[in-house]
Structure formats: C-alpha cells, structure tokens
Design brief:
single chain; Rossmann fold; Beta-Lactamase; 32 helices
Amino acid sequence: MPVEAQNTKILVVDDDLIIRKLVSGFLSQKGYDTATCNNAGDALTHLENQAVNLVVLDHLMDPGMNGLEMLKHLRTQGSHVAVVMLTGAEEHEVIVEAMQAGAQDFILKTGGNEFLLKLEQGVERALRVCLLEQKMREAHEALQQQAEFLQTVIDAVPTPIYYKDREGRYIGCNTAMADFIETPKSDIIGKKATELYESVLAERVSRLDDTLYAQGGHSLEELSFTRSDGTHHLLLHKARFQEPGGAMGLVGAVVDITDRKLYENELRLAQTVFETTSEAIVVTDAHNRIQAVNPSFTHVTGYTEDEVIGRDPGFLSSGRQDKAFYHKMWLQLSQNGHWHGEIWNRRKNGDLYAEWLSISAVHNENNETTQYVAVFSDITKRIKAEELIRHQANYDALTNLPNRNLFLDRLSRSMVRAKRHKTQVALMFLDLDRFKSVNDTLGHNVGDALLQEAAVRISTCVRETDTVSRLGGDEFTVIIPDLHHVNDIEKIANKILYQLSQPFSLAGHEIFVSGSVGVTVFPDDGQDLEVLLRNADTAMYRAKEAGRNDFRFFTQEMNAEAHEQMVLEREIRKAIKKEEFVVYYQPVVDVKQGRIVSCEALVRWQHPFKGLVAPNYFIAIAEETGLIDGIGHLVLKQVCQQIQKWQNDPVMKDIRVAVNLSPHQLRNNNLVHDIEKMLQYYGISAGALAFEITETQVMQDPEGTAVLLDDIQALGIKIYLDDFGTGYSSLNYLKRFSFDVLKIDRSFIMDVEVDSGDAALVEAIIVMAHKLGIKVVAEGVETENQRQFVAQQECDLIQGFYYSRPIDAEEMSSFCHLNFAKN
C-alpha cells in the first residue's frame, strides 16, 4: 500500500459511470478511501461537507460545469485540495490551462493497465505535491511574522525591492529599485506602474498586481524591460501579497536575469548537443585526464563514463600509430590549438575501429590551456565500404586478380617507369584453350573453379613485381615491368604454358586445357597503350591459330594482317549500307523423286573492285565484329523479296528457302518479332522459309535456344540442324530439340567411297534421324558414287555440286523449271 493511501480520502468526479467505477475501484484496491460524484455540482457540495485530500476530476462533464471550470472555482474559493485531471483526448492547450489553473497532474484516458498505472502514479505525485505546498504555506505564514525584521534586511539588499498599496501605488522601494528604473525614489512613491513604464510593461505589471490582489499568494513572472540606453533586459519579477496590520499590499523584487538566461540557454543547448550528438565527445583537463564523456563515447568505445574518468585517453590506442604520429599531433595542437585527422583505436572488446578525430584546446582569459575537447565519429564502416568499393572497382570478383581498370593503370605506370629508366615492359595476353567446351559440358560452376585454379597457377609463374590480371571470360594478361632481357619472357611464357597443361582435378573431373599466349614489348612494338593491347591480342590469336598451347611474339607482319582486317571491317560496313551483299541459291533434291524441293540461301559479296567474293573472305571478320547481324538482315530481306516474286510461279511457289542464322542473330531478343514482321510485310507464308543453325550455336545457350526455336517453329517455319556431327553432343541435342531436318556435314560425305568409318557414320546418322522422325540432307555430294551411296542408305535429300553450284535467283528459277520438265 502506498504511504499516501493511509487515511487519504479521494473524490472521483466523472459523468462516465464505467470510468467512475473503474477509477474508484482501482484506488480502493490501493487502500484509498474513495467517494464518487457524477457532476461538478454534487462534487462541490461534497467538498463543502467533507474533508477530501484529492479530487480525480474529468475534464469534460455533462451537464453544467465541466472539470476545468470546477477546478478554477475551487482555486478561486481558496481551496488547496489536490486535483488530478482526466481527459479522453490529448490536447496541449487544455493541459497547459489545467496546470495553470492549479491541477497537480493531467492523465490521458487510455486502455487497460497503462491508464491505471499512470493514474496510480499521478495520484501519488499529486499527494506529494499537495503535501509540499501545504508545508510551503506554513513556512510562508512563519515568514510573515518576521516581516518587519526582513524589511530592514531587504533595505540593504542590492536587489531592487518595492512595496505597493491596494491601489497599485508604490509606497516604498530601496535604492537598487530606483537605480534600476532610473527614477529617483521621490518620483516613484505614490506613482502607479502606468506612470513609470511604457504601456506594454505597465499593463503587464498592473495585471499581475490585480491577480495577486484578487487571489492572494505570490507570483513569479519573467518580464521584459528596456533601459534608456536601449539595452534589453529580462527580469524575474517576484511579488507577494501581504496584509500587515490589516492593510493590504504587495511586496516585490526584481532580479535582472539577462546574463543568467543567456548563460542558461547556452548551457542547455551545449548539454543537449553533448548528450544527443551522434559524435563521441571527450573532455580532458590540461594534463589530458578525462573529465567527462557523452553517451556516444560509450556507444563507440564500449567504456562507460565511470570506467574512464581520470584516465589518459591513451588507453584506447590501437598501436597502429607510432610515437612520431602522436608527437606531431601534440605539436600541432600546442601551436594551432586544434588538430584533426584519421586515427585507429581499440574498443573495450578488443576490436579495432577507425575514427575521424578533432581536438581543440580550451583557454582561459590568460590564454592558458585549461581543457581539451575531442570529438570523434566511428568511420570504420565507411572506410571498409570504401575499401570494398575500391576492391570491387579494381579486382575481379571471381579470381581476385586485378581487373581491366587496375590492369590498364598498372600497365600505364609501368610504361612511364620504363621510359624513365630506359627499360622494357612485356605484355602477355593469355587465352585458355577449350575452356568453352568445359563450361558448356560441365557447367559454369566447374568453369569458374577452373578459372580460379588457372589464376593461381599463372600467378605462381611470375615475380612479385609482375601483374597478373583477368580481363573477363578466360582472358588473362601478365605485365612484366623493368625488363632487361627478352629471354626472361620466354621462360615465363613456357612456365605458364606448362602449368596450364597439367590436368585440373575439379568436382570429380580430370580436365585438360592449355593456353595460347601473345607477347608484345614496350617500346619496341609500340609506345601507345592501345597499340600494345592490340598487338598482344593479335599475337595471342596467332598462337591459337598455330595449334594452341604455344606463345607468339608480335611481329610487324601480324600488324599488317591486323590492318587488313581493319580495312576489311570498314569495307563490310560500307557494303552493308550500300546493300552489296547478294543471295545465291543451291538446290536441294528429293532423292526418291529426283525433284528440287528446296534450296539453301548463301550470301555473296558483289565487291565493287574484286567482283563476286565468296563468304570465306568476310564471314569470319563479320562474326567477330558483330556485322553479321547486318548481313543476316539483308539476306533475309532479299530472300523474302524473292519468295514473294516466286509466289506467282507455279514451279517456284513450293520451293522452300533455308536461311542460315548466325550466333549473333540468335542472341537478338527481337528476332522472332522481326521475322514475323517481315513475313507480314512481304505477304509470304512461313512454310516457304526454313532456318539453319549449327550444333555449336545450340551449345552456346541450350535453354535460351530451345525457347527461341520453339517460338520460330510456332510461326510455321522449319528448323534445320546444319553441319551435324562436328559438334560435341549431337545425340543429346537431337533428343532435346525438335529439329525438322538434319544436314550431314560435307566432311563425312566426301570420303564415304574410301573411308569405311565415314560410310558407317553416315549410315548410322541416317538411321538414327529416321528413328526420331527427322529428315536428312546429305551436303557436299559431288560424285555419282556419293549420290548412289546416300541414296542406298535411304537419305531423303541431297545438296551439292553433283546437281548444282550456288546460283543466282534467275538461274535458280530456270534450273527448277528444267528439273520440273524432266520429272
């Protein structure tokens, strides 16, 4: 039971029966003697007849007088009973008005135990306040008995003091009062505030006086006063109602609190900043002993204020900074009065952290250092994030080797250093042979593991001053700076090739790969960064063309070839714009009927100077540069135009034209849309078209290709698998993809007469395809024996020089008409 509950009577006033019962019942359980009323009138009557220590009063009540009005009435009548106000809505103005009217507490009605808990606390606080006020009143009465003695003392006090009668006239004041308002005593006595002060201040003073006369007691108010020199002062006006010898009057004192208010505001602001700022703050004395720390200090370091007071902050040191660092810091601090910088310290749990620290010296009026204030923030996360960003920007995520950005930077620096010291820099470009096969057959996880192991092996073959980088995919580079002998390059290249040729044991697989290395030397082969990169790349491709697992030094002959390729690329671009590429057609004959049923569209370049150029002259560079997309678009466009023309020809209208799709075209997300749009534009049937793709193309993205081919076939276009047998997983892909036609590569057909192995393979392919419901085309048939062989194996279709070379559209039409006439 609370101490206040003993012999304490509480009146609960609320027009809400539930609240009234809830509050009275709860307080009764706490040991209070409670009574209830449902309106203000009954409550006032109850208070007149019975002694009550505390009233729990509802702010809003119906009908009649509400709670706030009842409280003001009680205080007007001089009642000092403690009052706790209740309200159902949190309104700031109501709370302020109630507290000003004399309520000891104000409680918001909420649900459940929270409201009762606040109620219990509010009641206890109000009773304690009431008890305190009672003691203060008793003390005040004792002071009044000594009024005459105190008056004498007050006359000697430097604080301005005055006396007023019931009419508000000054009947006395001390010298300090006269001096402050800059008016002689004789001019003050008998005057009212309205005769001494400017209107706003006079009205305020008069109103305070009236309130004191009406209510008695005392007041403590802050006033604003402007002296004749224009200075603005804040005053704490203390006034008390007194009635000595039956004559009513006021006794007041005025304290100039301008400086104190300014100091308090500054101090309060400083304390708020000190306690709430996110930066840690440490205050030390002149001997660098900690005097105070803020909560953020504890949050950052883990040490509480009690654990660090009186200690030198050096106990936080991480050991990363040496004595020279701290000596320089203190020297700058003593000379300039401040220091800032990055520093590493240690938390209580032993973890290291980085902080940005600013230290300022505090001086007294004699310019002597009395304290130091250190402000720091934990920047560990920021530094780690910056380090991570720098690492991600400069290092390959898979192998942790320098990436292209860092590689280019180091190569540039090595070139500058070599030029300064008259040395050489070797640049190696390295490409893993057969890596794509590993990636496609064993999966990307094994491929990634292979790249990681290859990176380790390459790194072990070079010096610490050399740089091994991964540019992407299976492409690596090695920078060998400060080179004096070219023979050193050969040693490193051979060492790398040997390491890469050793078997890799990954995920239960023993994998064999090799490397092709191209080497260029600065400044012998070039003095420009881009030139060196191009030279090394060119040399690497020459090593790959030479049979792989080898290295090649760049030569000027390679440069000439690279120049030719560049010129060729430029010419191809122009040829695409001028539409110099034309389509030739090679007939495909049905074996049983001997009738032409389709043809393959083959691109040729009608070069303005070289005449008709075969595709082996430009296809490779077109694929490499991506220009094959433009050529492929021209071919498809010309084929659709030709099919449109042939639609009116009774012989040609049933001839299906097969168009080769390049890997670049298969990666075009808009390919199906573009095909459908072209069919609609030229008004041709999808059945008149077929697309040929190679097994190698399928392997590059099996899942994506499967979706794409399904979408193309959904248009009604046939899909041919070209160059069958030259890939890696022929049987697997025949099962997974719905090919309409399979074309046996010409490399198997050309030797069927003399090579029993090729003959057996061709026979097996035809049987297998037929079992899967796929028609077969034998490509490259040039002799009668070859024709008879594939015919005997029941091959469906034949394509090759035996019937016709690729011919233009007009010749193709004539050839088909002649064939039709014979059959």
